[in-house]
Specification:
Elements lengths: L1 E11 L3 H9 L17 E9 L2 E10 L6 E10 L5 E13 L6 E11 L7 H23 L10
Antiparallel strand pairs: 1-6, 2-3, 3-4, 4-5, 5-6
Length: 153
Amino acid sequence: MVEVTLKAEITHPIPKARLVEAFLGAGGFFPYNLLPTITNAEIQEAISIEGRQRRTVRHTVKAQDQEPFLYNHSTVDRDELGGISREISHEVKITALPLEGGSVCKYAGRYFTVGPGDIPEEEMMRAMRGKASVMFGAIEAYLEVPSDAVLFE
C-alpha cells in the first residue's frame, strides 16, 4: 500500500470572486474548460471499464457564489471484485477573508494504491506539484492583469 499526500496554501489580497475566475480559467488543471458552464453546484460522474478494471471519475464543483468555493476531481480504480486498487484526488478550496478583503486558496492532492505501488513515490509527488503549480501559476498571472480587463470569453 502506498499513500502520498501534498498540501499547499496561498493567501492573496484579491477578492474571492476574482480568484475563483482565475482558477476556473487555468488551462492544464482541468480535463476540460469549466468556466462557461459552471453556475451551480454540480457533480459529474463517468464510469468506464478497461479489461478487469472499473474506473470511476467524479468532478464535484460548488459554484462561485457559494462559500467556500470547492472543486474536487477524483479517480477511483476498482478490481474485478470491487475492491479499490487505486485512488487519485485533487481538491481546491477558495475562501474569502472578510476582514482583510482577500482570499485563501488551499490545494490538497492525494494518491493511494493498494498493493505494490505502480508509480514511484517521487513521480507521484512531482505530478501533484505540477498540478498545484499550474493552478498557482494561473492565479499569479491573473494578478498581473488589470481588474477591468476581460480575461476569459
